[in-house]
Amino acid sequence: MEFFYQVIDGQHGDLDISVEVIDPEGNKLVSDYKKSENSIIMDLEHDGDYVFCLDNTYSIMNSKLVFVYVVVEDRKDDSETEVTVVNDGDEEEIVEWLGQDKDGSNYTIEVSKINESLIRTLNHVVKARHMLDMYSATKSRDSYLASEDTFIVDCWSGFQITLMLSVGFLQVYMIKKLFDRPNTHI
């Protein structure tokens, strides 16, 4: 089993969370305290339901957005796969594939080699999908961080502009008062 988690957004707080993985017998397999991400790979020894506990109790004021990715693979040996075809109720094993190339000459390929190639291709596709999901989670996390940083910069800029306008109006008022003379009629 592979278990990957990543805290994507923490609402103006730390991007960390505590995680526990518990097996069907109640034993703690993994215990991470205040981590922002981790990838855990382990062999499952027991059949049943495993518990994944994502704990944010130490950060009561901020909720978290967490990306979780779980893959459970069956460790059966791929070489045991058999390819069969059913003909009129009789079952026969196909050992070779007979084909003809574009020049018209016949060739044969062992079905086991085709099967191995397809399994290898499927494994590569699954790994590529897994890497894309991880990249997507990282990209989402970066976009949340960028939007939070933009919010902070916008608030600070608004404060500075307001302060500069206030100081400017105060200066104009004081300079006007400095040159303001009372009207004296002679």
TrEMBL record:
Its main location: membrane. Transmembrane segments: none annotated. Keywords: Developmental protein, Membrane, Signal, Transmembrane, Transmembrane helix. InterPro entries: Emp24-like (IPR015720), GOLD_dom (IPR009038), GOLD_dom_sf (IPR036598). It is a single-pass membrane protein; Single-pass type I membrane protein. SMART domains: EMP24_GP25L. The keyword DNA-binding does not apply. Residues 1-72 form the GOLD domain. It is found in: Endomembrane system; Membrane. PROSITE patterns: GOLD (PS50866). One of its GO terms (cellular component) is membrane. Belongs to the EMP24/GP25L family. This is GOLD domain-containing protein. It comes from Danaus plexippus plexippus.
